[in-house]
Design goal:
The complex is a heterodimer of chains A (187) and B (428).
Chain A: H1 3-19, H2 23-31, E1 36-40, E2 43-48, H3 53-62, E3 68-76, E4 94-102, E5 107-115, E6 121-123, H4 132-143, E7 146-148
Parallel strand pairs in A: 2-5, 6-7
Antiparallel strand pairs in A: 1-2, 3-4, 4-5
Chain B: H1 2-16, H2 29-34, E1 45-49, E2 61-67, E3 70-77, H3 85-91, H4 94-101, H5 109-124, H6 130-158, H7 163-183, E4 192-193, E5 196-197, H8 205-228, H9 231-237, H10 245-250, H11 256-260, H12 267-270, H13 291-315, H14 333-338, H15 340-351, E6 359-367, E7 370-378, E8 384-390, H16 392-396, H17 400-404, H18 409-419, H19 423-427
Classes of the chains: A alpha/beta (187), B mainly alpha (428).
Chain lengths: 187, 428
């Protein structure tokens, strides 16, 4: 890969980091140098490496007192017409998004991880935040993203024998034809 | 003698195995009465409560592992009401989006519309006129009243106070009737839209509102007189379905269930949105984290909401009820008759919708059931890439397991009822 570009990206990331005023986002970047802070419409966001996903969550819970992981969800960017670029972040097809909330400090932080198309897998956070059990199952169910270490990774919303992952952009909604009663069938 | 005995024995055996019609053999009476031979070594049994059980509020199924009547483990199973609303949301424009999200939590549709609209407005960096903000605040508080009034009805019915069902629905219907005079619909209003609200308040709304507030307050007084110190009701709820603050937070539980554990967390106070800074209200919280605290919190939150609604009515500023940004707001109806450009503008806005610049945001508000959030990703077109609603019921349902562990099966009914789950929101 072109190292010049990577250097340039790292430089941009450093300049982006200095723009971000949120001290938790800066602390996360200080601890995990590969992550990139970002300010999204006034909300602090950190883009983290896939391998650091679990460690970042543990750090947020234990050191930064983020007591609750309010929500975790995923996005499929396959057919985006236009996509906001974040300097220093290599954008991939899937994003897994976790919203953390700290009750004692009354603040939020969003952590995003980019996942490539090819066998998307991420470490499960259920051991840290048991409330994510359903949410990670939902992502598995609808996006086909695996969570390593999840105690019960099964389909939750779709039927157990469903084939495919409905919220993926290449999963066509009309794949299964609707059969009407007393339909004479195709002529 | 012995022949007669044998004959009567045979007769008895025949009768034991025969119905009155004499048509079919039955199991022995002893087996029918005792439920058949009980397996000696199989001590626990797994039964499904739901998805059609009346106390599961829709189509929730709870798998219970029972030892006699004691629940050892429980596991909620959801998905029976999954209708792919998030997928549908990706196919609808931002103008149409509110009609979709409003159907998720069907007891608090205005909260869904509000959180969706706030997410779109944040991506557009739109500033909403103060009158729209106050109308929105009044509407979601009316919605909170309606939702909690219905909870009083269903919770009362689930634990055996069947007449509560009639009373709770009565007051809720009054609230919905008032919402109908404002929005045109009892439910699924599609009234709060990106850019403001759909219409200004109708003539004579203030007198109706004052009457409604009086009636609801009287209703809450009646419920309190009926239930709050009723020994049978207390027996069913006090100390049942307890959960600690730490466990509730770890499991993502929010709203009245979290407040019942003695943790006064309410997004209206903690992270104020709309104009909650400017109104005076209390965060109601409990101390034991049991079903009774949850009942009591919701009962008192109705009164707090009445209080906020009155303040909204008094403090309602004059001005526009929607933002005068032609990008998101159609031209006034009267202009369409005289201007072709206005007609085209109106047509384009409702067919193609407006474009939202690429970006992502998460907005959270306090719905009657807890934190409802909207994670919205835009790609510069007229439709979102991703519309995710963080439904409070989806997370609150995970509290069933710690709440019912070790409880009796009849307490499971009271516990599920006190969680107040809305399956439309959990399954989306």
């Amino acid at each position: 890969m072109a190292t010049d570009q990577e250097d340039a990206a790292a430089g941009e990331a450093a300049s982006a980091a200095s723009d971000v005023t949120d001290d938790v986002a800066r602390a996360v970047v200080g601890r995990f140098p590969a992550s990139v802070p970002h300010d999204s419409h006034g909300q602090p966001v950190v883009y983290v490496e896939r391998d650091a996903w679990h460690d970042v969550a543990r750090y947020l819970r234990d050191d930064e007192r983020f007591t609750q992981c309010v929500d975790v969800t995923a996005v499929d960017h396959l057919v985006d017409v236009e996509r906001a670029t974040i300097p220093g972040v290599a954008l991939e097809r899937f994003e897994v998004v976790a919203n953390f909330l700290s009750h004692p400090r009354n603040r939020r932080l969003r952590v995003i991880c980019e996942l490539s198309d090819d066998a998307p897998t991420l470490a499960s956070l259920v051991d840290l935040y048991p409330g994510l059990n359903f949410a990670e199952r939902e992502i598995f169910d609808l996006y086909g993203i695996d969570f390593d270490g999840h105690p019960d990774l099964t389909r939750i919303l779709m039927p157990e024998d469903w084939v495919g992952y409905p919220l993926r952009k290449d999963d066509a909604p009309a794949r299964i034809p609707v059969v009407f009663k007393e339909d004479p069938g195709p002529r | 003698m012995s022949d007669r005995t044998r004959a009567s024995d045979q007769e008895e055996q025949r009768l034991e195995h025969q119905t009155d019609e004499g048509a079919q053999a039955l199991a022995r009476r002893s087996e029918v009465v005792s439920g058949g031979p009980w397996p000696e070594n199989d001590e626990t049994m797994i039964i499904n409560m739901g998805p059609q059980h009346p106390s599961t509020h829709g189509v929730l199924r709870v798998m219970l592992e029972l030892d006699g009547e004691t629940i050892l483990r429980s596991k909620p199973v959801i998905g029976y009401l999954h209708t792919g609303m998030e997928k549908t949301g990706e196919e609808l424009t931002y103008v149409q989006g509110a009609t979709n999200v409003t159907r998720m939590d069907y007891l608090a549709p205005l909260s869904n519309e509000l959180v969706f609209s706030m997410a779109v407005e944040r991506l557009l960096d739109l500033e909403i006129p103060p009158r729209a903000v106050w109308i929105r605040m009044m509407l979601v508080e009316l919605q909170r009243m309606a939702s909690h009034l219905l909870f009083q009805a269903t919770n009362g019915m689930d634990v055996g106070a069947v007449s509560m069902m009639v009373y709770g629905w009565r007051e809720r219907e009054l609230t919905l009737r008032f919402l109908e005079t404002i929005t045109g619909l009892r439910m699924n209003h599609n009234f709060i839209r990106p850019g403001g609200v759909a219409a200004d308040l109708p003539d004579g709304w203030r007198a109706d509102l004052d009457e409604l507030c009086t009636l609801v307050e009287r209703g809450v007084r009646d419920y309190s007189a009926l239930l709050s110190e009723n020994p049978i009701f207390l027996e069913r709820l006090v100390g049942i379905g307890t959960i600690t603050t730490e466990e509730a937070i770890a499991r993502g539980i929010t709203g009245p269930i979290l407040r019942a554990t003695g943790f006064p967390w309410d997004l209206r106070k903690a992270q104020p949105y709309l104009a909650y800074d400017d109104v005076d209200f209390d965060v109601v919280y409990g101390s034991h984290g049991d079903c009774y605290d949850r009942f009591n919190i919701r009962l008192n939150e109705i009164l707090q909401s009445v209080n906020i609604v009155r303040q909204c009515a008094d403090g309602l500023p004059a001005g526009d009820y929607r933002v005068q940004d032609r990008k998101v707001t159609p031209p006034p109806r009267a202009r369409i008759d005289e201007s072709m450009e206005a007609l085209i503008h109106h047509f384009k806005l409702f067919t193609e919708g407006f474009r939202v610049p690429a970006g992502e945001t998460y907005v959270a508000i306090e719905s009657p059931r807890g934190e409802i959030g909207c994670y919205l990703v835009a790609d510069g077109t007229g439709k979102p890439v991703r519309l995710h609603i963080r439904g409070p019921s989806f997370y609150n349902l995970q509290g069933i397991e710690p709440m019912t562990s070790g409880a009796l099966i009849s307490d499971a009914v009271a516990t599920i009822s006190s969680i107040d789950p809305i399956m439309g929101e959990a399954d989306r």
